[in-house]
Amino acid sequence: MIDIPAARAIIQNNESVLGIELGSTQIKAVLTTPDCQPLATGSHVWENQYLDDTWTYSLTDVWQGIQSAYQELVAEVQTKYHVPLQQIKAIGVSAMMHGYLAFDHQNQQLVPFRTWRNNTTQEAAKELTKLFGANIPLRWSVAHLYQAILQQEPHVEHLTFMTTLAGYVHWQLTGEKVLGVGDASGMFPLNSAGEFDPQLLQRFAELPAVKNYAWHIEDILPRILKAGQTAGYLTIHGAQLLDSSGTLQAGSLLAPPEGDAGTGMISTNSVRVNTGNVSVGTSAFAMVVLNKQLKTAQPDIDLVATPAGEPVAMVHINNCSSDINAWAQLFAEFAQRLGSNLSADQIYETLFLDTEFAQADAGGLVNYSYLSGENITQVDSGRPLFVRTPTSKFNLPNFMLAQLYAAFAPLKLGMDILFNEEKIKPQVLIAQGGLFKTPVVGQQILANALNTPISIMENASLGGPWGMAVLAQYATSDTQLSLEQYLDQEIFGQVQTMTLSPETAGVHGYEHFIKRYQQALSVERAAQILN
Q: Can you give the residue ranges of the Carbohydrate kinase FGGY C-terminal domain (predicted)?
């Protein structure tokens, strides 16, 4: 724990580092010391909008949210250390991966931001997967672009630049159209050098529907940088965007902007070959750093990269905790009707701990946590659904266990492909996310679901923005250490972890649940008729 005089000196001497992450439900900021101890934090709650059949966030909300989180952080700095935050040595920005942000030659946004949550690119993704000989997920930027081309959307003619959310924010702060290699790997396939694959760029350019446009694909993509490289400096305009009070000075070095998957790998120290991590929230993803190529192109496994450019197998699911949050809110409303104003933490802890009394198979209950469509189970749009039979054991413990089981179900289906078909399985996965805030419960369920030991680090609550701050510090550290060496030696040397192994009864119980889950998927798909 750093003392106040030392912290004050770090802030005043321009040695602090800032990490910002735009997640699906919160924008978070963390200010750290040079050795990445947290000094102050700020956050802002926001939500995506479903407009004209598109999941989106407005760019106005992006900047209002960033400024709100930053202002909260600045207020904490002033309160705790009694100094203004005028200079920051290094800054890093991360955000939800993938999606589509398109701009014209005047840097004007052409269409609303199409996020990772949209499953409207089936035709494009299928054609590109065949063309490239590699899996192109529905949420990747090139899939969104090609779908817009196939639909002859007028905006495509005026396209001069496309990027991700992290790339957009970084561009506005620095003027640089760049992207970290991890986030870039969700825009267009990379080659072994960590560059957009030139052969595949040419294949795309030669598509009949693409030839009609004056632009070339390689000219509208951002420039790729790897962890440790300088990605620009905070401009006067950028400083004003971050800090509307005008106190923050320009000049901070910026790290290459990354996706939340990349910061998840950093914050769990999972960038070495054969290491893996799981990040859970509104969506969830598991990452395993590969020591060999996949035997076949798997439609449910993305090939992406670490922030240093190492190949990664990624299983991404669109839905995880949203349905649990909705039920928790319902229980909170019921408690209020009874005159009990319980905190959110009390609600979640009570519900999660009650699963101790559940049957291992959740009593025959089945739940689908699909606020939006789910690629792995081939469900086009969101219809949260709870199913039981007349003989199911319907009680609160089983109900909550079914909710937690369902949150991990598509992830389990995807990871089974990696484990069983590709024979790629790390000895342990390191997990982070809000579902693990109540000790043991979520961690044990995930271990049982994946039949793999799950570790949680004592710093797990710091999450993505802290991981981005680590990348910013690495970019300004002038070290000769590789990224994995830097994390091992400079960041994680003293971090404690707790590991839970799978329990036999829990593993068998989850297998029974997942069989019913797969059997009843036709019910979930039939629910698509509801408007």
A: 277-475
Q: Give the span between the Cα atoms of 64 and 245, in whole angstroms.
A: 13
Q: 486 lies in a domain?
A: no
The pLDDT of residue 299: 85
Burial (CB count within 10 angstroms: exposed 0-12, middle 13-18, buried 19+), residue 404: buried
Percentage of the chain lying above the pLDDT 90 cut: 86
Alpha-carbon span 271 to 264, nearest angstrom: 10
DSSP one-letter code for 255: P
What is the per-residue pLDDT for 461?
63
Question: Which of these, 55, 143, 162, 149, lies nearest to 102 by C-alpha position?
Answer: 162
In tens, the pLDDT along 280-333 reads 988 899 999 998 888 888 888 999 999 999 999 999 999 999 999 999 999 999
Q: Tell whether 107 is covered by a domain.
A: yes
pLDDT tens for each residue of 47-72: 999 998 899 999 999 999 999 999 99
CATH number of the domain bearing residue 123: 3.30.420.40
Inter-residue contact 502 to 453 (CB < 8 Å) = yes
Question: Which strand (E) or helix (H) includes residue 224?
Answer: strand 223-225
pLDDT for res 227: 97
Total structural domains in the chain?
1
Q: Give CA separation, 19 vs 149, 250, 260, in Å.
A: 36, 16, 12
Query: 301: which DSSP letter?
Result: -
Residue 457 lies in a domain: no
Q: What is the pTM of this model?
A: 0.88
Exposed, middle or buried, 416 (CB in 10 Å: 0-12/13-18/19+)?
middle
**Within 10 A of 15 (CB to CB), how many other CB atoms are there?**
17
